[in-house]
Each structure stands twice: as structure tokens, then as C-alpha cells.
Amino acid sequence: MPACAAGSVGRFWCVFVLTASAATAQTAEPVPPTIGADDQAVSKQVEVAPVADDRAIANRIQRILRSTDWFQNPRVSVRDGVVFLEGTTKTQAHGRWASALARNTKGTVAVVNRIEIDGDAGSTFGRAGEEFVRTYRQALLLWPWILIAGVIMLITWLVGRLFAHLARRFLASRISSSLLLGVIARLFSIPVFLLGAYFVLQVAGLTRLALTVLGGTGLFGIIVGFAFRDIAENFLSSILLSIRNPFGTGDLIEVAGNMGIVQNLNMRSTVLLTLDGIYVQIPNAIVFKSTITNYSSASCRRANFAVGISYESSTTRAQILVADVLKQHPAVLDTPEPLVLVEELGMATVNLRIYYWFVSATYSPIKINSALLRLTKDALLGGGIELPDAAREVVFPRGVPLVQMGDGQGEKMSEHPVPSDPAEEWHSATIGEGGLRNESAEVSERSKDGRVPEAKENLLKS
């Protein structure tokens, strides 16, 4: 405070100076905080007059940094209370420690941390070794908890297996599908395992993590379901196919344009052996969604073929002749009775459609069809029934030539050859047809020498 001079003029001047000083002090703006290199603002107010000398602050901080042996070539400089830290260290934690030391030093306004982290290979391995030692020491302290957790999980696993075994025995007589039975047994064991994991986390004091694990199980299932949608679709299709059993092992089926003998049904696909001796694996999702034709599901099946006779021939006689062929053939069943029906009146022929039944497990459809076509042709020709060709358009650009036969006794046009002795030509099967036995059994016998894909797993009934 300025000293007031004696007299009225002096007292007036003193009062004016004091008033002006007070007004200046009230309107002065505070000094804004300084932001350091580590982006931390100064939390305390900056003194207008420095509390400590800059050189003293720098010397004090530098001596402390050197005494720790954590820093290489530490250098500290201070200007107007702002501390600048330089040098190198091995870890970021040491760098943060130096910043905290400088901020807590009396007289420090702000800190600019320029300490670099030493990233050479030697220091990296050294830090890794330190972390390993620290982890090892923590493990030594936590081994009782680890042992308790291991015992709890072992007990949980044994209890889960017990629940699955009991569920399997209880449901074995009620569920015929082995795959579905195994899935349901696992569903009984999963809650037991989740409860065991929850109890372990509870003992470890991780209650929130335990609730997160239990709550995230459903979300994890949804994520996995979207990621493995095709695999899950095949898996569910396998379960449904094993439950419904639309075909069995050894059945001749046609699905998705593939015909073959069923070898096995596994978790991913259905394996077929085609009549050409080739193994085909069809994904179960495609099998489940496709139309399945099972040729072995019924004991007998019906087949048909067509034949055309001329308009001049007797249709009734042709039907009798063909019906007699069907009646005499050993592979054709009497019940249901075979049919010889007039299908349509074509351009040049009367078309007959012949239907017959046979035992599919015993006879081959293509061999029976060949034998019946051969016998039908011989019977019709032997009975005087003409089998003309289909109508054709023949163009003669230079007209139709006329040939004079002399005395009028020209050679007659050759007709269809008629067997001299129809009885000698009648055979239910010839050497060319290879017998009438179903070739599925022969193909299956021959396939035993090869390797059936995924033969160890079969979810179908034999």
C-alpha cells in the first residue's frame, strides 16, 4: 500500500490511488489454465507470483528421476512454471509416473511430457519377462481359487453326464431316432454345466460377469445360428429325417434328380449308390425339401409301355394277344390284373397302352419291360397284326416312277417276318436281357468292395 502524504492534497491522492487499485483488482481476469502434452489441465489456480524458482523445480524433479533408475538421460527444464520432461523409459507407466511427479511438485503450473518409450527388442523381451513373473506370482496367489473352480467344474461335468444318461435311458423307449435322443440328452446336461459355471464365477466374486455369461448364452446361440445357418439347417433336417424315416438303408429312391440305393444318413448328407456304381452325397436340407420317390416302399409296383398297330388290323385280337403274353409271363402279377387299353387313334396307328404289376424287390423294371416288348412284338406279328411305321411325308421332285412288271406277276413286297415256330421264340427272359433279377441287389453286393462315404454314422433304420 502506498504511503499517504500529509495534508489534504496528499490524503486525496492516497484515497484515489487506493480506489483505483481496488477497482483494478476486481476487474482483472484470471489467468487461463495451461494444457500439458499429456492433455491434462492444471487443476489448481496459477499464482501470479512464482512460489518456487524454476531452476530449483527442475533440479528437484531431475534428481528424483535419476534416483529411480527408470529413465535414461532424463532432462528437466522449467520456464515460468511449465515443466518440460525429456528422456527415455521402458514402460508407459513410468512415463505417466514422471508426469504425476512433476504436477505434484510445488510451483508447477503445467507439464509437457516428452519422454519416449524405448521399443528395442531387448526391452520388449525384458518387459515380457517381467509380465510373466508378475503373472506367475498372481497365479501363486490364486491357485486355491483355481483348484476350487476345477473341482466344481469336474463335479458339474459328472453331474451333467449323469443327467444325460438318465434322460437317455428314460426316453430310449419313447424316441426311436438315435440322433434326436442324443440331442435331447445333451439338452438336459447343458443347464447343469451353465449352473456350474455361474457358481464358479460367484465364488470368484464375479457376479456381474456370471449374469453376463448366462444372459449372453441366448445371444451367442443366435449369432452362431446365423453364422452357421446351412450347417444348422442340415442338422435339423437330419433330425427330422431320422424321426420320419421316409426311406431306409437299402431302399431304391429318387431325390433331387438322383436315383440310387440308400447307403446311410449322417449329420450332413444322405449317401446314395447309383445303379452305375457311383456314390452321391446329397445335403439333408435338399433331401428334406425335395420330392422323394421311394421305389422300395411298396412290395409291388406298376409299369407300362405302348405299341401301335395298323388301322386294318383287329384291335380286339391285338388286345387278346397282348393280354395272353402278360398272363403267361412269370414276372407279371395276376392281381392287380394287367390291362391292354386303347390310348389314342394316331396319324397312322392305333396306339395301345399296356399296364402291368410286378414285384419290385425281385424283378428289375427295365429287364421286364424289355422282355414284354419283345414277346408282344412276336405275338402280334405271329397273329397277323401289322405294326406299321409312323406316318412320314415323302417328296418326289421328279414324279413317281412307274415300273412295268411284265406278265403282272412281280415280286411281292416283303412283309414283316413271322416266326416259324412261336413256341420256340417264347422266353420270359433271354441271354441279352440277363435274367429278370433286380440289379439293385447285385450293385449293392458289388459295392461292398468299395469305401462307403461316412459309413460309420448311420441314422436310419436298416
Give a description of the structure.
- There is one protein chain.
- The protein has 462 residues and is of the alpha+beta class.
- The protein has four domains: 54-118, 2-Layer Sandwich (Histidine-containing Protein, Chain: A), CATH 3.30.1340.30; 124-227, no CATH class; 234-294, Roll (SH3 type barrels); 300-390 and 422-439, Alpha-Beta Plaits (2-Layer Sandwich).
- Helices cover 46% and strands 17% of the residues.
- The protein is built from twelve helices and eleven strands.
- A five-stranded antiparallel β-sheet has the order 7-6-5-4-8. The chain has a three-stranded mixed β-sheet with strand order 1-2-3, with helices on one face. Strands 9-11-10 form a three-stranded antiparallel β-sheet, covered by helices on one side.
- A hairpin with a 4-residue loop joins β10 (339-345) and β11.
- The longest helix has 51 residues, at 121-171.
- It is elongated, with a radius of gyration of 50 Å.
- The model is unreliable at 1-43 and 408-424 (pLDDT under 50).
List keywords for this structure.
about 450 residues, alpha+beta, SH3 type barrels, 4 domains, 12 helices, disordered N terminus, MscS_channel_CS, MscS_archaea/bacteria_type
Quick overview of this protein structure:
With 462 residues, the chain is of the alpha+beta class. It has four domains: 54-118, Histidine-containing Protein, Chain: A, CATH 3.30.1340; 124-227, no CATH class; 234-294, SH3 type barrels; 300-390 and 422-439, Alpha-Beta Plaits (2-Layer Sandwich), CATH 3.30.70. It is 46% helix and 17% strand.
